[in-house]
Amino acid sequence: MTIKSAASLLFWAVSAVLALCWHANGGNPAQTSAPSAMDVGTFSFPAGKSAVPVPFELLANAVFVSAKVNGKGPFLFAIDTGSSGSVFASELTDELGMKPQGETQGTGAGATYKMGVVRGKIEFNLPGGLKLSTDDANTVSMAGLWPLIGQRIYGDIGYDVLKDLVVEFDYEKKLVTFYAPANYNYSGKGQALGATLEMNYDPQIDGTFAVMGMAAVSTRFTIDTGAGGTVIAAPLVKANDLFKTVTDKIPSPSHGVGGGESNDVVGRIESISLGPYKLRQPLVALSRDTTGSLTMEDIGVNVGGNILRRFAVIIDYPRRRVILEPNSHFADPFLADASGLVLKAEGSDFKTVIVQGVVSGSPAANAGLQENDVITAVDGEPAGKYALWEIQDLLKNSGHHVKLAIKRGTRSLICEFALRSLA
Fold first, then answer.
1. CB count, 10 Å around CB of 182?
2. In contact, 43 and 169? CB cutoff 8 Å
3. One CATH from 3.55.40.20, 3.10.450.50, 3.40.50.12780, 2.40.70.10 for 191-308
4. Are 64 and 117 in contact, with CB atoms under 8 Å apart?
5. The dihedral of CA 3, 245, 286, 317: what is its sign?
6. Residue 75: half-sphere exposure toward Cβ, Cα within 13 Å
7. pLDDT interval class at 177 (50, 70, 90)
8. Is the pLDDT at 270 greater than 60, yes or no?
9. pTM to 2 decimals?
10. What is d(CA 396, CA 336) in angstroms, rounded to the nearest whole number?
């Protein structure tokens, strides 16, 4: 795939936008949220404790924890505020000990898809002795997410489990802390913002975004810890003619559960304001989906990890509020690709990194890289040392001279070039 300009680069910085966001349509086809049977979350704290901090991994800007399920594991799960219910990877049900009974339908990034239904109590055991449980769950294909993350994702923990808790995501310390609400009292320096629950599960707050040359747009911002990037839903894009007003747009397909793909484009806008906090020059995806969750008018702006990671984010479900507390990365620039390479990961271990496309006139193109080249090393380090998203991050360091070892057929080559931001 030869790409003629930066405006045609597949921008992976916000891959996994809405990657784990879904809502299920159960036995009643008219439902727009999870069946009531899924809405039965419970929690159990260790004796004498009302708060349990759990370390998390930030992978492609999404939050993942290690947890056991019904005594099996531990396995890797997302903590996903954008998911109405807890879901499991259909490819791994045998390992998880799950036996789906019947089917339902879900909606996610760019697609609707079939989901298996798992009946009965499901208990998550997290580090620190915390037990979280729900009645019933769903299974759905998640294999499309694995190459970006570089490992298998077993599922996500959603609203059905989180709904009775206060949950703090401290992105700087990489800790998610679960609080019993009766004992929780916030005393930090952040700002508490009133929240509603879109479709009765997805926390939303008011805010504005600004694009150069037009008045600020007021809308709802959906807090989604299972999303890597931030995306403006298709109805809002259309209503404000954002494809014309946002310049330097870069196509950015993102993969979701159920095999869905969202065909967004990314652009740099002037600002996003949430309460008293203004984020300058953020990169956001502009959805052009015609089906799936990004076509819903009420989504507004789906806020993912590229913005959330600049805060400690506290979602107080019982009190319907979101507390934002900026951390030391609040003013960090939003970095774009600086290479012109579109990459994909293949193989059973997702460690074979292949050039899927090259932007014409980009640093990579000028250095002679070609489609189907296999990257074997980056700056002397084996490519297999990294997940795909980590290599993409390395290629955002504008001004750095990068050295790539590649294989082209039977030949081994070295390509060196200076990285230059494309957005």
1. 8
2. no
3. 2.40.70.10
4. no
5. positive
6. 24
7. very high
8. yes
9. 0.87
10. 6
